[in-house]
Specification:
Elements (H helix, E strand, L loop, with lengths): L3 H29 L3 H10 L2 H18 L1 H8 L46 H37 L1 H15 L3 H14 L10 H14 L3 H14 L3 H8 L4 H9 L4 H24 L11 H11 L8 H25 L6
Helix pairs in contact: 2-14, 3-5, 3-14, 4-5, 5-6, 5-8, 5-9, 5-12, 7-8, 9-12, 10-11, 12-13, 12-14
């Protein structure tokens, strides 16, 4: 004979099992009812590092886009030599260094002033971010598109097409990037501008984009090619061929959606690398020159006066480190969200 206590325990256990089963079925229905994009977004939102990094990256792009608006509200620009303005007679000392503390920080100049010329560091940083970020974005888009096309064609068609595209890729990979940048940038600008004339800023920007695009697509091409080679013999691709689908449809509908993850992740690593390369060109004097604001130029100026005014490099240095670090962390989070098996 069963006691009342045992009966109540059994009923409670049955009720708990039914509740658990109901929740499991509901979770299973919810999981099966969501698209891969929705699942990726749900995994990404749970990654606090990725979310914080995404907010920081978006903040940088928004600030860069609103640089003219912020400059107008702030009341200063990155071109005016404020040390020569009558409103700021003691902005620089007798050695042309900022007369205030920590690079001349004050209520009028939030990040201090530039030694020797007395320009506002805050607006120089804003416009320098604008120049570097959006230049790197264009270079990254061009490099990704070129790499995807070359890698897709070589990996899917194979044979002689893949062989020759592979040799072209190897040829471009043989160039030493930094030395090639330094040697080729003056040649590009000299093709369009007389040596006696000043090179326009827009032409320098176009030359930087062309040179970096010229040497920036090969890694993406190799990545896409290897991914396509592993997919073109899969059952779903063979089924599409048997059903009479065209090559364009197979590439667009069957292969491309399955290689979005490596393309996106590689792109997130390529953009901060492009920013560093653009800054390097300006730092060595073959990128942007006076008076165009640029991260690399700020580092070049800071390297000459860091002993007298170490504060000048503080804000651009912190800004670049934070942006590059957050973008790399964002790339890791995106990779983990697309493929949770690679989770850290």
């Amino acid at each position: 004979m069963t006691s009342p206590i045992e009966t109540e325990g059994a009923e409670a256990s049955v009720a708990l099992d039914e509740e658990t089963a109901t929740k499991t079925d509901a979770a299973g229905m919810e999981a099966t009812g969501r698209s891969p994009g929705q699942l990726m977004w749900a995994r990404f939102k749970r990654d606090r590092t990725g979310v914080i990094s995404a907010f920081v990256v978006i903040f940088f792009f928004v600030i860069a886009a609103l640089a003219p608006v912020i400059s107008a509200l702030y009341g200063k620009d990155p071109y005016t030599l404020y040390a020569q303005e009558p409103d700021y007679p003691f902005l620089l000392d007798d050695f042309a260094m900022p007369s205030g503390d920590f690079g001349g920080i004050s209520s009028d100049f939030w990040f201090g002033v530039e030694p020797n010329l007395g320009r506002d560091v805050f607006t120089m940083l804003l416009y320098g971010m604008r120049t570097s970020l959006y230049m790197a974005l264009v270079v990254t888009l061009f490099s990704v598109l070129t790499g995807v096309v070359v890698g897709m064609v070589g990996g899917y068609f194979g044979g002689k097409v893949d062989y020759w595209l592979g040799r072209i890729t190897d040829f471009f990979l043989s160039f030493p990037n930094q030395l090639f940048f330094i040697a080729f940038m003056p040649i590009v600008t000299a093709l369009f501008v007389s040596p006696t004339d000043e090179t326009p800023t827009y032409l320098r920007a176009v030359a930087i984009i062309l040179v970096m695009w010229f040497l920036g697509w090969m890694g993406m091409a190799r990545l896409v090619r290897s991914s396509v080679l592993s997919l073109r013999e899969r059952e779903f691709v063979e089924a599409a061929k048997v059903s009479g689908a065209s090559r364009w449809r197979i590439v667009r509908k069957e292969i491309l959606p399955n290689i979005v993850t490596p393309i996106l992740v590689q792109g997130t690593y390529l953009l901060p690398s492009s920013i560093l390369s653009i800054a390097f060109l300006s730092f060595v004097g073959v990128g942007f020159v006076e008076p165009t604001p640029d991260w690399g130029r700020m580092f070049a100026i800071g390297s000459e006066i860091y002993e007298q005014d170490p504060a000048f490099m503080f804000f651009p240095g912190v800004a670049m480190v934070v942006f590059v670090l957050c973008f790399n962390l964002l790339g890791d989070s995106v990779r983990d969200a697309f493929d949770p098996k690679t989770g850290r």
